[in-house]
Amino acid sequence: MPGNLLRRLRRAALGPPELPRRFRAVFRALGPNSVAIDCGANVGTYTALMVERGATVYAFEPNPHAFEILATRFAGLENVHCANAAVSDREGLASLYLHRDANQDPLRWSTGSSLLMAKGNVSVENTIDVQLVDLDAFIDGLGRRVTLLKLDVEGVEVAILRKLLETGTIDLLDVVLVEMHEAQIPDLRQETAELRAELARRGAANVRLDWV
Q1: Domain boundaries, the chain
Q2: Is the Cβ–Cβ distance between 176 and 135 less than 8 Å?
Q3: Is the dihedral of CA 164, 132, 211, 113 positive or negative?
Q4: pLDDT tops 80 at residue 157
Q5: How far apart are CA 127 and CA 166, in angstroms?
Q6: 2 close to 23: Cβ distance less than 8 angstroms
Q7: What is the CATH code for 3-87+134-208?
Q8: Taking the model in full, what pTM does it have?
């Protein structure tokens, strides 16, 4: 069997090797009839894996330096929709606090941007205004189930998940992969503990808080 074909078959069976093994089945479940949402897409590393599976992908990235790469990378693909915006639990405008070293290398440090001033590695002086998208309303407005939501938004995850639970929109999501940030933002520890308890109480097995 030709090597390229063997690699394609192996990738289809096992999932993307770029991912930790525990997440591969989640991405493998995506297909042409799937919807995936990448929140905190940055330059599109995981967006690309979603696109590769044929899913319709909505990628949100507020940092303009990362978004420029993201938008260029997927330009012309009808199944990819990139938005230079931050997801939140509300709509409006907000300040995005850039990483304290962003002036040295804006793209390298774009992953450290946050809507939360309390995040320890951001600069309170170096900010940009960004558009907020109410993720709960966005998902509800799609009018269909979402196979995968990846949520890595530097501390705003708690507020977003709390609203998804309150409205019941969480039930429209097959799998939610979340990176939590209470270690980097101590102010979130109590809220995060309460959220974890609420997820456990509800038995929300579709929400995984182990994305890294």
Answers
A1: 3-87+134-208
A2: no
A3: negative
A4: yes
A5: 31
A6: no
A7: 3.40.50.150
A8: 0.91
